[in-house]
Amino acid sequence: MRSIYISLVSEFYKSRKTLAFWAAILLPVGICSLVTFGFYSGSEKVLKMNYPGMLLWVSYAGATLNVMGMLIMPFYVMFMAFSVNNIEHKNDTWKTLFAQPLNKFSIYTAKYLFAVLLIFICLFLFAALTFGFGHLLQALIPKYTFSQYNPSTFLINSYTKLFLSSLGILSLQFILSLILADFLKPIGIGFVGTIMGIVTASLKWKYAYLIPYSLPALALQVTKIEKGKDPLDFEIFSREIWTSLTYAAVLFVAGYFIVTKKSIK
Amino acid sequence: MSNFAIETVGLNFNFGNQTIVKDLSLQVPKGSIYGFLGPNGAGKTTTIKILLNLLKSPVDQVFIFGKEINSNRIATLKRIGALVEQPAIYGHLSGKENLINRCILLGIKKAKADEMLALVGLTDAANKKSNKYSLGMKQRLGIALALVSDPELLLLDEPTNGLDPNGIIEIRNLMIELTAKHNKTILVSSHLLAEIERTATHVGIINKGQLLFQGTIDELHLLSKPLLEIEVDQVENASAFLTNSGFEIVSKTDKKITLPFSSAEDSGKLNTLLIQNGFTIYSLYKQRKDLENLFLDITKNN
């Protein structure tokens, strides 16, 4: 445990001056600010719709969530998986990293956890900023109905789903970036995968849930709404999430075996 | 307890069908500076990577401080500091940050980073991004990284690569100091014999994955039979005279005659003999066969 912690601290120390790390903060700040600005400057249009609190939150949070789930999330995850490994490829430091008195499992796990952590921070900020900026809008434009509904469950559930559904992609891309020492190959494969994921998810193909890249998009599609229930109080652990977690677990273990067998040339 | 810091027993290593290291039996005594010599591509770096368990060796072929490496990986690595090929440095971090990162990984005090920077003369460049460092500075930082854990055994793969003469001398002195004062063992690889000759106490010569020579530096010198060079007038007559007197002549130029050296007394007698027969001797000295040539001979014959 201690060596995982040490490795994790080192990962943080190494990356704190890189774009990958700051992306986790800048991305949510940027996107949430943009959407908020849109709702602020275009408030008249939004107010004409006469949304009740819940729907206003849905349209406001949905603006970020949809862009994220469809396109940005898969690419962000790919970029994280790439950066965490590329820092060693680029500097030719795998050999020193694995020559340290730390077990290989810790080094590998810490790298993986660090990528997971960055994604978590990013999505947490998305949820928190959506919540905060929503209330800021309410304060700036008192006619808004944000204060009528508490969106925290909806936000937590949505972003938790998005987080969990992206772990499958993360594990897959993590292995690709671990083996392939360049930018184009893992990102290229990921790009094709994402397009496939978006297409299959929007066509609602029966087996789309088996493609890791389509899971974030699928996870955000609200499928069944039971009568009399809050439509935003949906189940987190749906089939897509289980698929994603299974992919994540299996590929994480596979990645470890690749690491142990990997010859450091 | 074994007296060897490193011992390999008939080590074999292949990349696919290609044999990189063949039946290698290194014996690096504790406290020595072991010069690991060989031309480029001889298998030096591969061997060092095996010693770091970066490449997996067959069981019971590699022992570090008497312990089998595969079953004692972490305990062994704790005692080793290494510089493999070009130093592995995070270019976006400063020299100091690179060292601090290593301190984090090793669980040692961060103050050690400054100490190491001072040791390798990088204090002034401590906060400069390391991808802005010159090759020599990177090499020094690499050495600092290898030393930061205060390891008992240092594996240095061509540490003077890219250093200027001053830097080379510093590294040389540092190695001598580390072994003499701090009782470390150093394995240093190089393809330059002259470099190794100045510091090493022991030498191993490797070519095409096989160990061709292993022993102390004096034993290596013994291998090179010394010669006696005589600068003399009337070279032709003198060599004819010596041949007639039963001496073996190795080579002859228009100024010098070279014979095998046997002992100081014999050299004196030879001198007297030539003078008594009317030759004028300008100089007479013992010449050791150039180790560089010896190295070439040893590696060529393989």
UniProtKB/TrEMBL annotation, chain A:
Name the keywords, alphabetized. Membrane, Transmembrane, Transmembrane helix
Q: Which Pfam families match?
A: ABC2_membrane_4 (PF12730)
Q: Keyword Membrane: yes or no?
A: yes
Give TM regions.
Answer: 20-40, 60-82, 112-141, 161-180, 187-205, 241-259
Superkingdom classification of source = Bacteria
The name this protein goes by in its record: ABC transporter permease
Automatic annotation (TrEMBL), chain B:
Q: Which PROSITE patterns match?
A: ABC_TRANSPORTER_1 (PS00211), ABC_TRANSPORTER_2 (PS50893)
According to UniProt, the name of this protein is: ATP-binding cassette domain-containing protein
Q: Which PANTHER family match?
A: ABC TRANSPORTER, ATP-BINDING PROTEIN
> What are the protein's GO molecular function terms?
ATP binding; ATP hydrolysis activity
Domain annotation ABC transporter: ranges: 6-233
Q: Which SMART domains match?
A: AAA
Q: Does the keyword Coiled coil apply?
A: no
Q: Which family does it belong to?
A: Belongs to the ABC transporter superfamily.
- Which keywords does UniProt give here? ATP-binding, Nucleotide-binding, Transport
